[in-house]
Amino acid sequence: MADEPLVLGIETSCDETGVGIVRGTTLLADAVASSVNDHARYGGVVPEIASRAHLEAMIPTIRRALDTAGVKATDLDGIAVTAGPGLAGALLVGVSAAKAYAWALDKPLYGVNHLASHICVDQLEHGRLPEPTMALLVSGGHSSLLLSTDITSDVRPLGATIDDAAGEAFDKVARVLGLGFPGGPVVDRMAREGDGSAIAFPRGLSSASDPAYDFSFSGLKTAVARWVEARRRAGEEVPVADVAASFQEAVTDVLTRKAVRACKDSGVDHLMIGGGVAANSRLREMAQQRCDKAGIQLRVPRPGLCTDNGAMVAALGSEMVWRGRSASAFDLSADSSMPVTEVHVPGAPDGHGDVHAHAHEALRS
Ligand code: KG4
Ligand code: ZN
């Protein structure tokens, strides 16, 4: 529909410079420039390298997104940007760029939450999210169960990891197995040739007295490292595919069991899975089987939309405009530990569009 909001979204919370353009719930462009290869030799994301790469990629990526979408910057109804959580310096590059474009174009600015964006991106694939929706968010930085009754204003955390994120566990296990970084995709691939029941790795926080919706992957990671070490010490060959498959089975078993339980306990019959680890083929398969059995509708965006991208930010920004949420003030800052309950950074109660008034106020103060 032509009158649906046309929004550009900018994502720079980690190592992907993402710029997406969305009209309503329709994806028009999803341009991503990744610095992942620059970090590979360090075994993890180096914040300074990520910030520098965002700075260099920002303007070309915005231009590419506008070209692909076939729209002019002046046609936009708003600019959305990830305000947090994420790496402080990396976030700052995106927030500064969004402010500059919003200022120059005289458009409303929406600083939004990275985690809520990971949920909202599903609208681009499966239409508007049912309310309520349960969300299992699993990425390199987060593993949480969230209940959303309105993706622009009400996202409640039910549980989270108490130590490592699921993606972090994939990355660390990949390192132990000598498979490189990032670990998730390569563990996923290796696991297809292995037997997931070959080794009984521990399922963290899974006894009756443990918190029902929290996760723990640190013990599992250590158990895998010890198992591999013992083989190497004994001079035996490590069955890499079986280790990868058994580790992956343990992670996906816990994630899907807790997510389905959260749905049942809350009487919610829609589950969405987002974040980089949602690209995992076994997680998708197991979640589908368990949701079918429990009568829950499963929504998982395609893998390219699960990892960090600008389209997810544009999707949430567009929903903000659609629902008349107030634009952010022009003194918007990046918040590296932004809580998920803060879905967006609201501006003045009168809300919409007076970016310049906010800017002048901010400059005066
Ligand atoms: O959402 P994301 O792109 O960035 C963060 O916000 O963290 O997630 C990246 C994480 C990495 O840890 C990566 O190893 C993991 O997602 N990942 C996967 C797969 N693809 C990416 N984990 C398991 N299986 C995959 N196929
Ligand atoms: Zn993410």
Task: Describe it.
By secondary structure, the chain is α/β, with parallel strands linked by helices. It is 44% helix and 18% strand. The protein has 13 helices and ten strands. It has helices at 36-39, 47-69, 88-105, 114-120, 123-126, 166-176, 183-191, 218-233, 240-266, 281-294, 303-306, 311-322, 355-364, and strands at 6-11, 16-23, 26-34, 78-84, 109-113, 133-138, 143-150, 154-160, 270-274, 297-299. The strands form two sheets. It has a five-stranded mixed sheet with strand order 3-2-1-4-5, sandwiched between helices. The protein has a five-stranded mixed sheet with strand order 8-7-6-9-10, sandwiched between helices. Helix 7 (183-191) packs across helix 9 and helix 8 (218-233) runs antiparallel to helix 9 (240-266). The two termini are 41 Å apart. It binds 5'-O-[(R)-(carboxyoxy)(hydroxy)phosphoryl]adenosine and zinc ion. Residues 14, 139-141, 167, 170-171, 182-185, 188, 275-277, 279-280, 307-308 line the site of 5'-O-[(R)-(carboxyoxy)(hydroxy)phosphoryl]adenosine. It catalyses: L-threonylcarbamoyladenylate + adenosine(37) in tRNA = N(6)-L-threonylcarbamoyladenosine(37) in tRNA + AMP + H(+). It comes from Kitasatospora paracochleata. Keywords: Acyltransferase, Cytoplasm, Iron, Metal-binding, Transferase, tRNA processing. It is found in: Cytoplasm.
Topology, element by element:
Elements lengths: L5 E6 L4 E8 L2 E9 L1 H4 L7 H23 L8 E7 L3 H18 L3 E5 H7 L2 H4 L6 E6 L4 E8 L3 E7 L5 H11 L6 H9 L26 H16 L6 H27 L3 E5 L6 H14 L2 E3 L3 H4 L4 H12 L32 H10 L1
Parallel strand pairs: 1-4, 4-5, 6-9, 9-10
Antiparallel strand pairs: 1-2, 2-3, 6-7, 7-8
Helix pairs in contact: 2-3, 4-12, 6-7, 6-8, 6-9, 7-9, 8-9, 9-10
The structure holds 5'-O-[(R)-(carboxyoxy)(hydroxy)phosphoryl]adenosine and zinc ion.
